[in-house]
DNA sequence: CAACGTTGTGTACGCTCGTACATATGGGAT
DNA sequence: ATCCCATATGTACGAGCGTACACAACGTTG
């Protein structure tokens, strides 16, 4: 038979799932579509991931890791001298101005936790990680509030197609920081 | 043949769609499931709503109207003497403590706009309406920021299963209000 | 080298789905 | 009274779905 003992098979399936969700959304994700995208037979996807939720958990976790890497590479928010509101607003603008598919992918996976309890631990982990990262620069309550506000602002842009206004974001973020 | 000339047929289909989404989520919505829930034949749903997006638009719009009514009935946020942050935090706590199905329904319909452009105008309308309502009590920038923060706080509660902390909400909402 | 268990593969079953379409019905225009 | 057309209905088709399962390949272990 065909290719055997492919140790990265599982990883390639996750990558394919992320591409599929990015292109067609979670609604377009099925064992068959990932199989086709990853160029593996159907049985291979059902073997590695018994349910689609399992696959989604793996995909969301990997997407989060990629996102964390992007943050880290961009200075990492560690400079205690810089203005945090300015930094966050700039970073959000950069993110929203970039590849829209990637942004939608992240948020779709994140928001899917609303109806899929299996994804909630991963979503919670992600929110906590970001808050922890901000905690180096401010207190815990403010960090949580900043995460909430960032999410809310991003959602307004994504859901209502109102263009991102960096000055507005800077202004309201600054108000939350004591 | 069976029942004819049912002028409320369309409305009953929308009501059924809302019930279906509330119980099984958008993923469980189909012409067939709505037809069964509304007790009408399959052809009736496809006749009144050519696509599921059409049906979702109608459902989201109706859900928004119901929500607006709830706000209006609860004092309406019009009293200029009351503390706005306290009012909003209390109202959010009441909403999140109530029927979880209803809360999830609202947010699922709202967030679905991320991947369904057809829903975006309705989502935008809803966000604008709420901001307008708040504008009686504060300036436009603050109103928008409050909507974003409310959304972000609700999402944290819904996605991560962290219990709602009204005191925290009051505190950070107050910071946004100049 | 033989038995075994993990990993990979192909296929088929039963189900639900959106869609199309032929047909029926009766209110309103003429 | 007659015709037209929006409304309503039932059925059938093809596609895609999750799942199950028998079988193939090969590293590991004894």
Automatic annotation (TrEMBL), chains A, B:
It comes from the Bacteria. This is TetR family transcriptional regulator. Keywords: DNA-binding. Residues 30-49 bind DNA. One of its GO terms (molecular function) is transcription cis-regulatory region binding. The keyword Coiled coil does not apply. Residues 7-67 form the HTH tetR-type domain. InterPro entries: Homeodomain-like_sf, HTH-type_TetR-like_transc_reg, HTH_TetR, Tet_transcr_reg_TetR-rel_C_sf, TetR_C_31.
